[in-house]
């Protein structure tokens, strides 16, 4: 019988699990709540207990698996299989994740950063078409990403390779970023960044707009509200989306001018705007990209949604498949 892969996508609110075939097909998936109480000490034991329960439920044993892969927030040491500084998990101190899971389950374990893992998922069985050169940009509460070049993730000497959200797109008049710099892509293209940009542009916009009125009134406005209004013909909301497209087009062109990937895949919550956003990014990408890059690098929308994490995590475990 062919071996299976187990993927774990560890997040601040939930832990998602998937059992996959060796070619990336999800056979079973489930999720549990992430218990971050008491410095997150329950997280790893909860993961182990959940896997043991499911294997029993499905009539599987550790011999059925080639390996387990996990994507985690924080600073990941891939060699030691540890996580440090994942503050949304209350993991300030280093956590011996891999040692505990391997000891309890008897299955080889691999781990990487959650954004990198999502990139692996999209590259393997999503919009990346298993191409060896793919860039993944995820637009959520922040802007993250992963770079796969010549079939391998780029990690950098300190593990900070692929910090696409911190490309500077507005050096002079930009917003302050949590990283300490000014004008990072994250400040204008994340879910909160879109709204922040809307507030700025609303100051000088004259004309009818429900979104501008809501911003001026101090009402709660989300990035989804902005995109929905723009698609419905709100000219002010459309100007905000256009500006977001400009920043993403500039950033993706700069990445592509260096790497010339087969594709830049845009995922995360903000990417739910789909072609409405992709086409704007493409327009500015074409303006700023190097001639050969314009012709060869494609801008795509992600295909795997919430499954990118478990699929990419499972792909880490492919290294344990016996030849």
TrEMBL record:
<keyword id="KW-0067">ATP-binding</keyword>
<protein>
    <recommendedName>
        <fullName>Glucokinase</fullName>
        <ecNumber>2.7.1.2</ecNumber>
    </recommendedName>
</protein>
<dbReference type="InterPro" id="IPR043129">
    <property type="entry name" value="ATPase_NBD"/>
</dbReference>
<dbReference type="InterPro" id="IPR000600">
    <property type="entry name" value="ROK"/>
</dbReference>
<dbReference type="InterPro" id="IPR004654">
    <property type="entry name" value="ROK_glcA"/>
</dbReference>
<dbReference type="Pfam" id="PF00480">
    <property type="entry name" value="ROK"/>
</dbReference>
<keyword id="KW-0808">Transferase</keyword>
<dbReference type="InterPro" id="IPR049874">
    <property type="entry name" value="ROK_cs"/>
</dbReference>
<keyword id="KW-0547">Nucleotide-binding</keyword>
<keyword id="KW-0418">Kinase</keyword>
<comment type="similarity">
    <text>Belongs to the ROK (NagC/XylR) family.</text>
</comment>
